[in-house]
Amino acid sequence: METIQTAFDTFADTLRDAAARRQFVRLEYMTDLHEFIKADVLLKSATATNGVDVLELANGEQVPFNRVVSISGQLSPRYPGYGNYSCDC
Fold first, then answer.
1. Which of 7, 60, 64, 85 is deepest in the core (most CB within 10 A)?
2. Residues 82, 70: contact at Cβ < 8 Å?
3. Rounded Cα distance, 60 and 47, in Å
4. Does the predicted model carry a pTM greater than 0.90?
5. In terms of DSSP H, where are the helices of 1-89?
6. Which domain, by its residues, includes 67?
7. Could you tell me which residues come within 8 angstroms of residue 80 by beta carbon, excluding any fewer than 6 positions away?
8. Is residue 54 part of a domain?
9. 32 near 70, Cβ under 8 Å?
10. Mean pLDDT, the chain, as a whole number?
11. How buried is residue 34: exposed, middle or buried, by Cβ count under 10 Å (0-12/13-18/19+)?
12. What domain count does the chain have?
């Protein structure tokens, strides 16, 4: 049986790889209140909580993979229009 990896699966692999290397990254994500957050953060790990993949940040915050807009400039396929509207302010 052949497995097809989607664009989001590839992006999720990027998130897991960055977390495994405990990288310091520019992370853009949406909160559960749909607030757009841009922060420079240290990644602690990538885990699954209640069946949802999350990035754990060094400050203890957890960000679900599906809410990550971009990591170090690499845009998520779930948020294709956000690249045009974000600025490096």
1. 64
2. yes
3. 13
4. no
5. 7-20, 82-85
6. 7-78
7. none
8. yes
9. no
10. 90
11. exposed
12. 1
Q: Which residue has the tokens 């974000």?
A: 86
Token pair recorded at residue 83 = 């690249």
Look at the block and give the residue holding tokens 């807009």. 69
Structure tokens at 10: 């590839």
- Strands of 52-57's sheet in order across: 62-64, 52-57, 36-49, 24-30, 68-71, 74-75
Could you say which DSSP state residue 5 is in? Answer: P
Query: Is 63 domain-assigned?
Result: yes
Question: What would the pLDDT profile of 25-58 be if each residue is shown by its tens digit?
Answer: 999 999 999 999 999 999 999 999 899 999 999 9
* pLDDT of 66 strictly over 80: yes
* Phi, psi (deg, nearest 5) at residue 21: -90, 5
HSE (CB half, 13 Å, CA atoms) of 46?
17
- Is the residue at 39 inside a domain? yes
